[in-house]
Design goal:
Layout lengths: L1 H22 L9 E5 L7 E10 L5 E9 L2 E9 L1 E4 L11 E9 L2 E10 L2 E10 L8 E11 L5 E6 L5 E3 L2 E11 L14 E9 L2 E8 L3 E3 L3 E9 L14 E8 L3
Length: about 260
């Protein structure tokens, strides 16, 4: 009996120590946390983390923003607690200039800033700590949005059949065509994507188009990008259409 108890205590100790190192650097907060990050060769990046309540499973949510060159970029709302990679127990992956990790229950999302073709691109990847039978995963990065410091731009948040306006442009999502995103609590080979059909009014002209997550659509007077879709998918959970929130980035083109 004594040997069995000692064995149980040893197993619990291993689990607790493993949990400490897994969650080291990730803390829960009730206040907005801003983390300035010095990045060699580019202007300072500030990651901002704001508690955003809980989802239907009582998982805590965190809204992430990236502040760069005086502009704030919406980086989505993700399950768990979030932390800037710099100054935490995490390390940047090759080519990553700066990043943030959002973690919950053995998995999470990574938001990384990469420099490609003279542009700073924010990409979204996924993490899974794995198990005794399966190796952990970190990667699957896909373009999320581009950091741009020139030109007038605005972020518009809206839902199906609800419009949002800014810079003389009105966007109304009318149909969700695809949501093949990898659930945040599942390790996937591909990250998947979202496609939505939307009505766009610019000036006196109204047209419809299909917008794919992270893909820039260039029009006559502006570019339009579906930069974020919420909530993030969860395994076994069907998101009602009315709960989808779409963030469109509108940027006026130079004359």
């Amino acid at each position: 009996m004594t040997e069995k108890i000692a064995g149980t205590i040893a197993v619990l100790a291993v689990v607790l120590v493993g949990g400490y190192f897994t969650y080291k650097g990730l803390t829960t907060t009730d206040e907005l946390v801003r983390t300035p990050v010095e990045v060699v060769g580019i202007p300072e990046i500030v990651w901002a983390f704001d508690p955003a309540g809980t989802d239907e499973t009582d998982t805590p949510l965190t809204a992430v923003s990236l502040i760069w060159e005086g502009k704030t970029f919406d980086a989505g709302t993700h399950p768990g607690s979030c932390v800037a990679i710099e100054g935490s127990s995490w390390a940047l992956v090759p080519g990553e200039k700066s990043g943030a990790i959002c973690w919950w229950a053995g998995g999470g999302v990574e938001l990384g800033v990469f420099e490609e073709g003279g542009e700073l691109i924010v990409k979204r990847g996924y993490l899974d700590e794995g198990s005794a039978e399966e190796e952990g995963m970190r990667g699957g990065f896909e373009p999320f949005f581009v950091l741009k410091k020139t030109g007038d731009s605005v972020l518009l948040k809206t839902r199906i059949d609800e419009h949002a306006s800014g810079l003389g442009v009105r966007v109304t999502p009318v149909e969700l065509l695809e949501d093949s995103r990898c659930p945040e609590d599942v390790a996937c080979i591909q990250a998947g994507t979202v496609r939505v059909r939307a009505s766009v009014t610019s000036g006196a002209r109204t047209t419809e188009g299909v917008f794919t997550l992270g893909i820039v659509e260039t029009r006559e007077q502006e570019t339009i990008t579906l930069v974020a879709v919420e909530p993030a998918p969860r395994a076994g959970v069907v998101t009602p259409l009315g709960e989808y929130r779409f963030t469109f980035g509108i940027e006026k083109r130079a004359e």
